[in-house]
Prior knowledge:
Helix content is about 60%, strand content about 10%. The chain is α+β, with helices and mostly antiparallel strands and about 260 residues long. The protein has 2 domains: about 5-70; about 125-250, CATH 3.30.1330.60. The strands form 2 sheets. A 4-stranded mixed beta sheet has the order 1-6-4-5. Strands 2-3 form a two-stranded antiparallel ribbon. The model has no long low-confidence stretch (mean pLDDT about 80).
Amino acid sequence: MLLRDDAVAGRIRTAVEQAEQATASVKHATSQADALMTDLRSQQIPQKAGAIIDQVADSSRQIHQVIADFTRPDQEGMSAGANIRESLTNANAAAANLADATEALKHNFLTRGFFKNRGYYSLADLAPDEYRQDRTLARRTQRRVWLSGSELFQQSPHGDVELSPHGVALLNQTFTEHADSFAESPVVVEGYSNGAVSADRFQLSRRRALMVRQYLQTHFQLDLKNLGAVPMKNAPPSATGRATWDGICLVLLKRS
Length: 256
């Protein structure tokens, strides 16, 4: 049949030719692989790769040795981590002692004038009693801006007190009108509340004062040490001539 059928013979010849081509391709690929391996051997790539691996392994052993030496207990049996923690604790204690000593010097009768002149006296933490007794802070000649609580605040969905959109706009307007005073002079935020219970008046007035101070500090990038916040319950200083107030009073202090 193979001798008589030309079509079958043609297909066989085609299959043989394809097999020969495939064999030639395999031979070519093999020769390329041989050439590549010869090139790698000539450049000593395998030896170099082995040397690199040996160097990495040696470096790893050195690192482990350093870590072991660093974490080895000292003569008293204390580990390096414990020594570091103790050192940090001592540093924090020293910093706290230094801060306490500096704060005491700020309020000392003989040295507080020096700290005030250097700008170290901060309004960030004002006690209400000290504020009321300070004639400079509570005197009538200080510029005051009285803002009503009903215009500034609203109740949040969670029941807390928050600045209302109208209150934010009112603070922005106040800052624009007195921008020079805010930028050049210290400011005290007096908080007021007309609650029925004294404790509630103090809490709400403090919350209001801190909230307004935080807004002024963060929104207008004011220096916190020049921003005071004082809960006044519902009783303004006697020099203001007001018997009571519910809201906020911004006191723009004049520099002497």
